[in-house]
Amino acid sequence: MKALTYHGPGRRTWGGDVPDPVVRDPEDAVVRVDAVTICGTDLHILRGDVPEVTQGRILGHEAVGTVTETGPGVRTVAVGDRVLISCISACGRCAYCRAGTYGQCTGGGGWILGHLIDGCQAEYVRTPFADSSLHKLPEGVTDEDALLLADILPTSYEVGVRNGRVGPGDTVAIVGAGPIGLAAIITAHLYSPSRIIAVDLARSRLDAAERFGADTVLTTAEATPEAVRELSRDGLGADVAIEAVGVPETFELCARLVRPGGRVANVGVHGKPAVLHLEDLWIRDVTITTGLVDTHSTPLLLDMLAVGRLDVSGLVTHRFGLDEMQDAYDVFADAGDTGALKVALFRT
């Protein structure tokens, strides 16, 4: 089959010399990939920021497809089912999985697709723990819309909005208006904050943030603590600052924008150390959270999508055929010039 494989920092190939996946364990399923996307984490991998990814690994952890084969232990999905492939695999048995913290699974799951095992930027993918890691798609939910629930919507919701404890009346600053930041805007609205402030370098992404519901947009240069305090409900700064980029400067900016007693929720994948200014933060009672998504919210988000309570239209800006994988990577990686938010690739 054809697949996108990693060959060290800066090197990737798309080719047809990759063996087809097969069921190895009783709880496996093989899924034909009907739609797939590229994540910012894939770009981090290609920059060498995730050394656990070995050469020859098929990348990708966000896809929608059709089940073509199941192991004898699979009970909740069957051949022919349309499914969302979660970015997180869950054994369903370990202590973390029983607590709904699937990202920390110690039974062989967690973030493994496109990381520790072959992923889904391919024509077919083997998915371990199919019963707890695949989600049957409701009627009427399109492949494109469902694709956005494989990673960015649950990540932004769980690691940003929920970990940051966004609540009614809060002032929320979201630093980074890429796909994760925009998804954080969408899901923060579920909790009725008084103001959402989006911060980014690119004018095109700030325009997108306004379309998705940001009340105020600021360039990085404009996003000073003084400016955010003036925009907050009581002049004290952001109740919650969500870091949605993954570079030291944006994390440190979030720590400056948050009010005393506020929360910094780090969502971005960092490849370099960031300075933690405890000499300033300790006395301000600031809470900092980090986390890998658990995807425990995926069924809820799918239900909301199916009944029209979650609008993800507009997040996909560029569409390709599966054989155009290399072009899609180039467009996504050069988002500053191309205006790409999420790209979607479809089986033709």
Automatic annotation (TrEMBL):
> Pfam family of this protein, just one?
ADH_zinc_N
Note the InterPro entries from the entry: ADH-like_C, ADH-like_N, ADH_Zn_CS, ER, GroES-like_sf, NAD(P)-bd_dom_sf
The answer on whether this UniProt entry bears the keyword Kinase reads no
What family is this protein classified in?
Belongs to the zinc-containing alcohol dehydrogenase family.
> Cofactor(s) for this protein?
Zn(2+)
State one molecular function term (GO). oxidoreductase activity
Going by the entry's taxonomy, the superkingdom of the source organism is recorded as: Bacteria
Q: What is this protein called?
A: Alcohol dehydrogenase
Membrane-crossing residues? Answer: none
Q: Which SMART domains match?
A: PKS_ER (SM00829)
Q: Which SUPFAM superfamilies match?
A: GroES-like (SSF50129), NAD(P)-binding Rossmann-fold domains (SSF51735)
Q: Which UniProt keywords apply?
A: Metal-binding, Oxidoreductase, Zinc
Domain (Enoyl reductase (ER)) ranges: 16-345
Q: Does the keyword Glycoprotein apply?
A: no
